[in-house]
Specification:
The protein has 567 residues and is α/β, with parallel strands linked by helices. The strands form six sheets. The chain has an eight-stranded mixed β-sheet, with helices on both faces. A five-stranded mixed β-sheet has the order 4-3-1-6-7, sandwiched between helices. Strand 3 and strand 4 form a beta hairpin. Helix 6 crosses helix 13. The longest helix is centred in the middle third of the chain and has 27 residues. The chain is globular and about 70 Å long.
Length: 567
């Protein structure tokens, strides 16, 4: 057994990760094990899964690193969560609680974490706490840097954590110099939170639905909404901190903001919020580049899940390179905390950047056979499974894929995906009827072979996008080739650009599909039933197949069908 370091985050989207001898070995979100999407609480099952993955028992762990110094850690059911939100602005005494949250390290959370770790048998482990935004920044810096000796500008922005909602820092040779920190009362992330709640969606989960609606609105009406929001939140005189104009925090000022916006169309509201966010964060980024002289920018924190903001920042003339950490919400905190601690104990040069996001459970042939046994489904083992999948896709079939290690985070990146022909405009309707039941305005995303990306998207800087963290405009003549995998209003997309040597098999499927059709792009969406997390195990994938109208599933080396296979 090597040297173990366990990273955890409790609260919204609880997650655990483990490193062995200084190398990241496994990471999984609690939701994938409980079946409760966006699980809020302590990652008991994720901790156990990490230990199983490396063949360890709780007593083997001597150190745990936690990606925050404050915040809730106990489970909060979704209904209770929504009830609390509905009552929030009717409880004036919460102003004092809000002040308390600004304090960096209230003692209650560490005591509770210790109690919960003991319940999991980790009685001998020393616990180190890393500041919330330092963990977000460390995830971006260590996970994405391409040269350990190059300076990077690292931006973090989220709802809040440890009393802050945004930071600007310069990282050079593993040393972080924080230049600016915005306290949580000026949070653009919480503005999105309350917009989401007011629209009847679930905060921490559905903000992306607002972004998806934004392109449908008229630009002039979106600008009117953005201008109203600019009167509440802007930048301080340094240009490096978000700054509210009200005495009350942005969160407490929400009823007033909502009143001023009342009567406007929902699409205009969402578009205005999106435009406001792009305007504010691009100005903030430009100021940070000017202040530091560093033109290579990395980003972390949940606000940077917004691919259109990331696109605007990447396009700035003052920015040479830009990348946002994959799935950079609070589920990334254990990874950032691990990276931070490994740099302290082993030296920053020893911390390897993230090679890929495939950090979860693998699918073995035995797993696949056991999952299918007794179901009445048909199991076939073709000689070249990727060619068979490509052939089905070329025939217009929709094929689910569960093979290799599960992706960490919010994006399906080929190993727990549903694939389809993106040139078929009817595919979104079919997918929604089959399984997804997505909100009608939400686009699907493409997976594009890197060597053919120029045919489909505008990417003059050749930015990498292996994790679907950047938005791109499509080429003028590419819309018909990928109409089902782009936004129908503005024809933009959120691509997974797949390297030729990707070890997952997705590149081989794309090559085989290209040989058959002349196209090197597929629609890629997550493998899950509506309202459930992405499938983790072979059993999960078979459950999706059985409880939907899907007909084909690649399960490890096998093709699983609902009818007798003919291949």
């Amino acid at each position: 057994m090597g040297d173990l370091l366990l990273g955890i985050h409790g609260g919204a989207n609880a997650t655990a990760a483990i490193a062995v001898d200084g190398h990241l070995a496994h990471c999984v979100q609690e939701e994938r094990l409980t079946g409760i999407k966006g699980y809020m609480g302590f990652p008991h099952q994720a901790v156990a899964a990490c230990l199983r993955a490396v063949g360890a028992v709780p007593s083997d762990v001597t150190e745990v690193v936690y990606g925050s110094r404050s915040g809730p850690v106990d489970h909060c059911p979704r209904d209770e969560w929504l009830h609390r939100l509905a009552a929030f602005h009717h409880q004036p005494t919460l102003v004092e609680g809000e002040e308390h949250l600004v304090v960096a390290a209230p003692g209650a959370m560490p005591r509770r974490v210790t109690e919960l770790l003991r319940q999991d048998g980790l009685t001998a482990a020393r616990v180190t706490y890393v500041d919330h935004h330092t963990a977000h920044a460390a995830a971006a810096y260590y996970g994405l840097r391409t040269d350990p000796d190059r300076p990077y500008l690292v931006l973090t922005c989220d709802g809040f954590g440890d009393g802050a909602c945004a930071t600007v820092s310069a990282w050079t040779a593993g040393q972080r110099t924080e230049i600016a920190r915005t306290d949580m009362r000026n949070s653009i992330g919480l503005l999105w939170f309350w917009f989401t709640h007011a629209a009847g969606f679930t905060p921490h989960e559905d903000e992306y639905k607002l972004m998806g609606m934004a392109p449908y609105a008229r630009p002039d009406r979106a600008r009117q909404v953005a201008d109203i929001l600019h009167t509440y939140l802007g930048l301080d005189p340094t240009g490096l901190r978000l700054h509210r104009t009200t005495t009350a925090s942005i969160e407490r000022a929400w009823p007033d903001i909502e009143q001023r916006l009342r009567g406007r169309r929902f699409d205009d509201l969402f578009a205005g919020l999106q435009l406001f966010t792009e305007d504010l964060l691009t100005r903030w980024t430009r100021n940070a580049v000017t202040a530091t002289g560093i033109r290579d920018v990395l980003a972390g924190g949940g606000v940077f899940m917004n691919i259109k903001v990331n696109q605007r920042i990447a396009d700035l003339d003052c920015v040479d390179t830009f990348a946002a950490f994959p799935s950079c919400g609070d589920e990334s905190l254990p990874l950032g905390a691990l990276y931070h601690r490994l740099a302290v104990t082993h030296g920053h040069h020893s911390v390897q950047p993230m090679a890929d996001c495939y950090l979860g459970d693998d699918i073995t042939p035995d797993d696949a056979r056991r999952a299918v046994a007794g179901t009445g489904l048909h199991l076939h083992e073709p000689d070249r499974i990727e060619d068979v999948v490509a052939g089905l896709l070329a025939e217009g079939q929709i094929v689910a894929r569960c093979t290799g290690r599960m992706e960490y985070g919010a994006r399906a990146l080929g190993n727990r995906s549903i694939l389809a022909n993106p040139a078929d405009a009817d595919v979104p309707r079919r997918l929604n009827q089959l399984i997804k039941q997505r909100d009608f305005w939400m686009p699907f995303a493409p997976a594009i072979l890197r060597s053919h990306q120029h045919r489909y998207i505008r990417n003059p800087r050749r930015l990498r996008s292996p994790y679907m963290m950047l938005g791109f405009d499509t080429q003028p003549d590419a819309a018909t080739d990928m109409i089902a995998a782009i936004h129908p209003a503005d024809l933009s997309c959120r691509p997974q650009i797949v390297d030729e040597d990707s070890p997952t098999g997705l590149a081989r499927i794309l090559h085989a599909y290209h040989a058959r059709t002349g196209q090197a792009v597929l629609l890629n969406t997550s493998l899950n039933l509506h309202g459930h997390p992405i499938a983790r195990t072979a059993v999960d994938a078979v459950t999706v197949l059985r409880h939907s109208d899907l007909a084909y599933l690649q399960l490890g080396p096998y093709l699983v069908t609902k009818h007798a296979p003919t291949c």
